């Protein structure tokens, strides 16, 4: 079946250089609604840098980024988040001095254009508290809503960040190693949440993940990065059987 005409988010000839180092080199890639794409590669391959370019943490040296056909290359992080580009980070990106509940409530307020207004945290804005509780329940953190984020385990902090991303209700979900630091018992909660997004929301999902069992469960497509370039892109089974991909993952020199 052919892909829809307009990608949810796409990169065209995207590059970024840090001095003499080219971290992402002339990458063109499109991501579509209803599809989960796993982005793989060895450490230093350019995966997270590519994510940072798409979500606005970094500005490209050259190339363009489009969101449903609109050029967003120069949009700020906050502007991209507002139009629907949602990012969960490899390292937790939370408000450590606030409670678990207050973190999610801030995300709900931001989605409703109520802003990250700390002065309104104690005000029961219509529907906001209920929505915050709804997303906390989704990640099995409702019972820890009153705890300061600093007191949560690393795994619970990762779950909280996913709850905040869900609360923003983005059109494009970007997960950077969402299960990193989680226990074996915690991982299925996140996998099931991502599956639910994929099945019921019809959103484009980008996933950087090293756990192959998770990739096999979730991915419709795999894109392999190596030395800042895409060296393979396609069906998971076909991509992982390619000699060039096996060479990268086995640590042998590329021909």
Descriptive account of the structure:
Strand 9 and strand 10 (229-234) form a beta hairpin. The model has no long low-confidence stretch (mean pLDDT 87). The protein is built from nine helices and ten strands. The protein has helices at residues 47-55, 77-83, 100-111, 128-138, 154-168, 187-201, 212-218, 236-240, 243-250; strands at 9-18, 21-31, 36-40, 62-67, 70-71, 85-88, 172-176, 204-208, 221-226, 229-234. The longest helix is centred in the middle third of the chain and has 15 residues, at 154-168. The strands form two sheets. It has a six-stranded mixed sheet with strand order 6-7-8-3-9-10, with helices on both faces. The protein has a four-stranded antiparallel sheet with strand order 2-1-4-5, with helices on one face. It is α/β, with parallel strands linked by helices and 255 residues long. The two termini are 34 Å apart. It is globular and about 50 Å long. Helix 3 (100-111) crosses helix 4 (128-138) and helix 4 (128-138) crosses helix 5 (154-168). The chain has two domains: 1-84 and 171-255, Rossmann fold, CATH 3.40.50; 94-169, no CATH class.
């Amino acid at each position: 079946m052919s892909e829809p005409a307009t990608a949810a988010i796409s990169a065209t000839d995207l590059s970024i250089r840090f001095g003499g180092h080219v971290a992402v080199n002339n990458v063109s890639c499109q991501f579509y609604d209803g599809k989960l794409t796993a982005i793989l590669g060895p450490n230093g391959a350019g995966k997270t840098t590519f994510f940072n370019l798409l979500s606005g943490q970094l500005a490209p040296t050259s190339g363009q980024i489009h969101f449903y056909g609109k050029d967003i290359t120069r949009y700020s992080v906050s502007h991209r988040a507002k139009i629907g580009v949602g990012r969960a980070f490899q390292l937790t990106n939370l408000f450590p001095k606030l409670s678990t509940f207050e973190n999610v409530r801030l995300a709900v307020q931001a989605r409703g254009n109520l802003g990250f207004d700390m002065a309104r945290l104690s005000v029961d804005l219509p529907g906001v508290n209920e929505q915050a509780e709804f997303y906390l329940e989704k990640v099995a953190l409702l019972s820890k809503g009153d705890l300061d984020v600093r007191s949560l385990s690393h795994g619970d902090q990762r779950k909280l960040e996913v709850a905040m991303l869900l609360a923003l209700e983005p059109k494009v979900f970007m997960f950077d190693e969402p299960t990193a630091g989680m226990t074996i018992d915690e991982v299925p909660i996140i996998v099931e949440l991502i599956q639910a997004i994929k099945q019921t929301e019809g959103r484009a999902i980008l996933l950087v993940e090293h756990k192959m069992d998770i990739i096999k469960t979730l991915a419709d497509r795999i894109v392999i990065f190596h030395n800042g370039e895409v060296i393979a892109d396609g069906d998971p089974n076909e991509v992982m059987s390619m000699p060039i991909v096996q060479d990268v993952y086995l640590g042998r020199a590329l021909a």
